[in-house]
């Protein structure tokens, strides 16, 4: 009889070890995946057109001209360096590529830490934002983040 109780005790101990080991492994995997997901680079782009700059004459801006404002925010935990900003028109050029341009911004390049943002001002001379389809920013690693101006679910002012 004691032999049976001894074997049952070691079987229960082995079962308990298998259950707690499996739970620990799964918990570790889930927490690791969550930390990886939470730490990814997340960029938010906001766009506003037809804005005036007041009090910016000392920095080269005119209160008589219209500017576009592109705000780029880093919502992730990893730093990201923004090196370019630009736009695409919906029409194509003679080579079949989208028309558009890169905005020459004194604010770029800019390294954005967690929760930081950069505001890019662009003089609207020669840019028809009613024809523009997308605004983009590019990181130092070559990753391109796009704001679709035709998507009605995103806030924008045009």
Give a written overview of the molecule.
The protein has one helix and nine strands; from the N terminus they run H-E-E-E-E-E-E-E-E-E. With 158 residues, the chain is of the alpha+beta class. The strands form two sheets. Strands 3, 4, 5, 7 and 8 form a five-stranded antiparallel sheet that branches. Strands 6-2-1-9 form a four-stranded mixed sheet, with no helix packed on it. A hairpin with a 4-residue loop joins strand 7 and strand 8. The C terminus is likely disordered.
Explain the layout of strands and helices.
Elements: H1 2-38, E1 43-51, E2 67-74, E3 80-92, E4 98-102, E5 110-112, E6 117-123, E7 132-139, E8 144-148, E9 156-157
Parallel strand pairs: 1-9
Antiparallel strand pairs: 1-2, 2-6, 3-4, 3-5, 3-7, 7-8
